[in-house]
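Shipment paperwork, digital attachment
Item: protein structure file
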Amino acid sequence: MIPLKILIPSLLIAIVAGIIGIILYIPTGNVIILFNAIIMAISIALIPPGIFDYIRNKRIREIENRLPDFLRDVAEASRFGMTLADAIVSASKGRYGILTNEIRKMAYQIEWGVPVGVALESFLSRASTPLTKRIVSTIIKSNEAGGNVSDVLNMVANYSREVQQLNKEKYSQLSSYTVVLLIAYGVFLVTILILNVQFFPQMIKAGQSATGSVSNNIASINVSIIPTVKLIFAGAIIVHAVGDGLMAGVLKDGRFESGFLTAAALAIGGYLFLLMLGGV
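Attachment content:
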């Protein structure tokens, strides 16, 4: 969940940008000004929260990817008769990527006499992820209950590896659907470009040349609505882009927020593509 302190300011600024664009569009009738404002509003609304979500999820993935290695080393140390506290201190000498500093802080706390349960809770507060919460809570309860902690450590280490493997398989399977979405968007974009650049101008020319000729069917077409239709199609590109981007996020990990950057990139890219090739 993206914090409201990031989401709300982005939405408010985006709304203001959209309103300014509409105000500038009304007296001039320049659709470029209108679409520039829409794209700017979409960018402001999606990019800052998207960047925050991307950085946070990257950190979560790195933590959860390295956690099984730490659990394995702690389990190996506990097999030789070490207590959980001693096993954590011994395993803290290894390297675990983004977790290294947090694990060493936990080991320093234990060496200073902090109870292992308190040290684990402190570690959890600094490296909190859904998987870490489940695993660390299980370890704390197992240590409080007594018994062979090494078996529990091996169990949670295997569990975390299985979760990571399942997530990778799920992502690889759903990535093909994301590719289909992107291809469909590309096809739709090219279709709108061909209609706006090639088909509609020819219809306007044919309609103008056939004015006054009752026998010609093209004369019955109201070519004056074609600019409006072109405007609607260009707007459909933006709607399509945002929808496909958000759906790509849902397919990735079940959250719309994961698709914010993709949605913004598709909207900006599609609009620039039409603008540079004369499709707007």
